[in-house]
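DM between two lab members

TW: hey, do you still have the Glutamate-1-semialdehyde 2,1-aminomutase entry open?
JB: yeah, one sec
JB: this one, 405 aa:
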Amino acid sequence: MPHPTGTDSWRTRALAVMPVGSSTNSKAPTLLPEEPEVIVRGSGGRVFDDRGREFIDFRCALGPITLGYADPRVDAAIRAQLDDGILFGHPHPLETTTAELFCSIVPGAEAARFLKTGGEALAAVIRIARAYTGRDRVVQIGYNGWLNSLAAGARVLPGSSTASVPGVPAALARLHHAVDWDDRATLDALFADHGADIAVILVAADYPSIPEAAGFYAYLRELTDRHGALLAYDEMVTGFRVALGGMAQATGVVPDLAVYGKGVANGMPLSVYAGRRDVLAVLDRGEVVVTSTYGGETLSLAAATTTMTIMRDEDVPGRLRQLGAALQGGLNDLFAREGVALRLAGHPACPQLVGDGAVIERFLRASFAEGVSFYRVVYVNAAHTDDDLAEALRRAGRACEAIRR
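TW: and the structure you got?
JB:
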């Protein structure tokens, strides 16, 4: 694919026909010319742009690539199913067998169902929780997808919030409450005022705080139990990365409902909403309707079956933890040695760059120039090799030197 030039660049062309220049806000390039405008191919732990530049990649499609780009086992499963068909007017057996496999792996998953994106699966959980409890209010901690960013002060993107959300009626916004991570005083006050009307707490882990999260999750479990509310986990990033069973396995605190997505199918579009069978029974009774033509699309289910099986049998989360720890430790040593005011904090499988925003931007730009693709959350995948990490650290060292100069 030839590289456009001048006013005909991919970025210019995209902005002419597409708001933001990408269908995913976080993928739109903002650090040109060092950052790639488009990626045309990935293999293992590396990606390639349309100019032929190669990058050691730690964005991993913003998290979904857990086994590596173009994993041959997952690709073979997709190709085999493609011969039999993609979508039908009745359920395919893969719907049942993939749900069985998922429920055998994830703590608290007594039943599971499929959609395509995290936002819609989280919206489904909110509706199910309201129907099951007969209550209207929802407490949200962290970013739960653009679709569900309804409260004043909610996370409209993973790293930003807003005092109000244009396009959301005030009457609806008043039923949603955004609370910061581990803000127990606000939660206690909120439940004191509205406890009898709160249906669910929906919590996404704060990446830098994951290693110490068990205490907060135990507090949320006790709080919801005491007030008759449900507890739901947003495991879009943490599921199949921090642990096979996400934060439920990592903390030992099991929720009533959970949503998984990134990592479950190595990049194929699939989300899972799961949990207690009695809670999900509102769907069986027809009290709540959650349905999608593409929920049972077979290529993603075939990919998910293969991906989950590999991750379970080969302890891929352990591999991600090992690789991530080496990269995290190496980068933090590098930042300290070079006097760059950054650190990589949190669980090794998904640590976050912490520091001044301008310094983070300079580091990302300088790293792109050296052929390393980082993101504010740094993701490894199982195809990264020790040589990849060593080379990435050498290149990141040059990036730090450039910043220091």
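TW: got it. Residues 316-338 form the longest helix (23 residues). The longest strand covers residues 198-204.
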